[in-house]
Amino acid sequence: MQALLALEPQRQSVDTLQAEIRRVCGLFTIEPRPGDGGALTGGVATGRIDRFESAVVAVDGERIARDKRLVAEDPGQHLFLVLQRSGRCRMEQQGVSTPMRPGDLYLADSAFPSVFHYDGAPSRQISLHLPREEMIHRFGRSCTGGVAIDRDDPLRLAIHAVLVRAMMPGTAPPPLGEALLGLFGAYFHDRERQEAASERAANAVLSRALALIDRCGLDPRFGPADLARALDISERTLQRHFQALGETPGRRILHMRLDHARARIEAERRAGQPINIADIAFSSAFGDLSHFYRAFRSRFGVAPGALTRPVALSSNRLDA
């Protein structure tokens, strides 16, 4: 373990260092700094923490990447607990970019493409290689896909301390692998609890928003700003809640009004009553008939008059 921490990076070819990283961590490609040609300074050393393989990777290059092709060629079997020992890095996985400073921890998932951006600055990282299927069995899917361990979470400090203790030179440390897994279990249990609470709160806000639209949507003065005020949240927060439905609050209100207008037209047609498109539009919170006609055709693919009987269409037709 002492040799692991005492790793001295050497100037070497990109191909040599890439082959060593692939031997230890799986298929990755290395990109050197611009102007460095086919060489860079770096090194890899390996060891074990209890039954888990570990490694130190030092690199002074641009980035190390694992794209979709490499994932398909070398399906991921591990989650890599990465400790930023020195230098800086920007970890990218699943479309999320996470800056890493010394002491930061990230759980990288080898089953997904990933990029370690070094931007030409020297970096040294310790990684602990955890069997992916076992971790899923222990902690559930919340540990997959790339997880930045919250820097302010007290459990991060404990995980960091155990990991560093396990890699200290000198006398053999007590078995610490299970201690790490126990801390991970506590971390992901707490994370799932927080996410579930957050999801329940978000669903409650969205449910209240939809009920308010049903109750107030036919008031022509009612809009997204009024809805946000009634919920005591900002309009931006309101927009985020509606992303779960794939629409905006304004679009939801508009569709509610159009659905109301169509239901009125169809109900009066079935009852054989005269249909006045203008009255229906105004009662559905549309103050502008031309806007009503355009929105109705956009949503339903036909003009309002197409849903009336021919006699109603000819006697009640309004010019847009």
Please provide a brief summary of the model.
The chain has 320 residues and is an alpha+beta fold.
Task: Give short descriptive properties of this protein.
alpha+beta; 7-stranded antiparallel β-sheet; 5-stranded antiparallel β-sheet; 320 residues; 12 helices; Jelly Rolls; disordered C terminus
The biggest beta sheet reads: 7 strands, antiparallel
Q: Topology as H/E string?
A: HEHEEEEHEEEEEEHEHHHHHHHH
Give the strand tally.
Answer: 12
Count of helical segments? Answer: 12
Mean pLDDT: 87
Give the proportion of residues in helices: 40-55%
CATH superfamily of the domain at 2-173: Jelly Rolls
How much β-strand is present in the residues? 15-25%
Low-pLDDT regions = 310-320
Terminal CA distance reads 81 Å
Overall 3D form: elongated
Q: How do the strands line up in the largest sheet?
A: 1-3-4-11-6-9-12
- Derived structural class: alpha+beta
Q: What can you tell me about this protein's structure?
A:
Residues 207-310 form the HTH araC/xylS-type domain. InterPro entries: AraC-bd_2, AraC_XylS_family_regulators, Homeodomain-like_sf, HTH_AraC. Keywords: DNA-binding, Transcription, Transcription regulation. By secondary structure, the protein is α+β, with helices and mostly antiparallel strands. The protein has a domain at 2-173: Jelly Rolls (Sandwich). Helix content is 46%, strand content 22%. The strands form two sheets. Strands 1-3-4-11-6-9-12 form a seven-stranded antiparallel sheet, sandwiched between helices. A five-stranded antiparallel sheet has the order 2-5-10-7-8. A hairpin with a 2-residue loop joins strand 3 (39-49) and strand 4. Helix 5 (154-166) runs antiparallel to helix 6 (177-216), helix 6 (177-216) crosses helix 7 (224-231) and helix 9 crosses helix 11. Residues 310-320 have low confidence and may be disordered.
